[in-house]
Amino acid sequence: MSSPTAADLLGYEGRLLTARSVEEIEFLLVNEPFSLVSYEQAFLWKPDVLGRPTLAAASGLAEVDANSPFALWFSRAAEFATGVVSQSPVRFLMAADFPTALNDGAEWIAHFTLVVLLKAPTGEALGGLWFGRSTPFAQEEVALVGWLGQQSEFVLWAWRREQLALKKRIAALAPLRWRAMSAKRKAMLIGLIVLVLVFPVRLSVLAPAEVAPLKPNPVTASIDGVVSRILIAPNQLVHMGTALVEMDDTATRNRLLVAQKTLDVARADLVRAAGKAFSEDASKSELQLLNSRVRERAAEVAYLIELLARLKLNAPADGIALFADADEWRGKPVQIGERIMTVANPADVALTIYVSPDDAIALDQGAQVKVYLNISPLASFDATVIQASYETGMSPEGHPAYIVKATLAEGETPPRLGLKGTAKIYAQRVPLIYYLLRKPLRTLRHALGI
């Protein structure tokens, strides 16, 4: 990469100064420097309430999960990098410099790493920038990373001051109004606040949901092989016994022809030996062996005939066939038991709800659910929880989630299978103050480690 010009540096600085939010600043700090310095990975961390490093942004990602395995490992790696003694504001680290305590994330450590600690003019820590790649950094790149750190310090400090100033202005208004109130009005206001905070409300959680069959009938591969073709269209209505999938039968049919020829030869040998047995004692001793061989070949032929019949998969019940695209399956190798499609009754539907572990509440059987589908966000329908997993599974997006099953309330019109939306699950009644502070208290517990 050629050295950046003054125009490149001024353009980068201008993009930082015109950012409209802290989130935009954090995204720019790990992605925009690539036009100035070549790197394979870039990260930004910020201190939490206890001053521990927390991953705030990563190059190539719109957002990061602070509870992911990498984020937890990176917090320890950033804490180590913060303690590295260096006369320069830029710390240069090689893979061998990291302690063995960080070996659980060895695949995430780049061969060469540049770390810049960010501080406010008052000396307060603002976090740090992390750049890694597989080739060494040149001296001019190290100097350029130091300049990037100075620009990052300024914009992060400026936005932090703006946020603190706004909070102070809002807080300054409260004491003036409070002092102007009489003692009676103060007591009434405090009493009203207490009544509101202890007012019982229904604890609830929002989670993504999709309409799924209540009793799905999976159509799975009967053998290891290749799908020849799908005989129906997606979402087509089928009846029990309808042919749905054809597997490629070339190899099985050839094996059957060979086995039938071998059986014919074995039978001919048995007939010839039986004819000689009247005059030759040696042929009598061969009869039992040849008879066993004929039975063995006949069993192999019967097995291949049965296997050939299983190469055409039929509908296990009446319903509609649920799968994405027939062309995607044509010529695709499959293993025995692999699901190709599902046949389900469109009138017998349920809801599959994916509740994040961070939002989990008491998901008791019989809990009330209200569902809002994406196709009609102003309309809703009621459902009831019938099952909740005791351990987390994976959502379609690849995130851990508790999987909850719910059935529609009596009288509700079944929505179309496959529709997605948002479900609101209700639990027991709790005081309003608990409802408001449940998540902040959980976050505080995680931060304090209690």
Q: Number of DSSP helices?
A: 9
Using the alpha-carbon principal axes, give the shape: extended
Uncertain runs are 169-173
Number of domains as seen in the coordinates: 4
User: How is the largest sheet built, in terms of strand order?
Assistant: 6-15-19-17-16-20
**What structural class do the secondary elements suggest?**
alpha+beta
Helix content: 25-40%
Average pLDDT, to the nearest integer? 81
CATH superfamily of the largest domain: GAF domain
**The level-1 CATH class of the largest domain:** Alpha Beta
Major beta-sheet overview: 6 strands, antiparallel, barrel
Number of strands: 20
Radius of gyration of CA atoms, rounded to a whole number: 35 Å
- What fraction strand? 25-35%
CATH architecture of the largest domain: 2-Layer Sandwich
- What is the chain-wise order of helices and strands? HHEEHEEEHHEEEEEHHEEHEEEEEEEEH
- What's the CATH topology label of the largest domain? Beta-Lactamase
What is the first-to-last residue Cα distance?
A: 48 Å
Short description:
This protein has helices spanning about 5-15, 20-30, 70-80, 140-180, 185-195, 250-275, 280-310, 325-330, 430-450; strands spanning about 40-45, 55-60, 90-95, 110-120, 125-135, 200-215, 215-220, 225-230, 235-240, 245, 310-315, 320, 335, 340-345, 350-355, 370-375, 380-390, 395, 400-410, 420-430.
Mind sketching the topology for me?
Layout: H1 6-17, H2 22-31, E1 41-47, E2 53-58, H3 69-82, E3 90-94, E4 112-119, E5 125-133, H4 139-180, H5 183-197, E6 200-213, E7 217-220, E8 225-230, E9 237-238, E10 243-247, H6 250-276, H7 281-309, E11 312-314, E12 319-322, H8 326-329, E13 333-334, E14 339-344, E15 349-355, E16 368-373, E17 381-388, E18 393-394, E19 400-408, E20 420-431, H9 432-448
Helix pairs in contact: 6-7
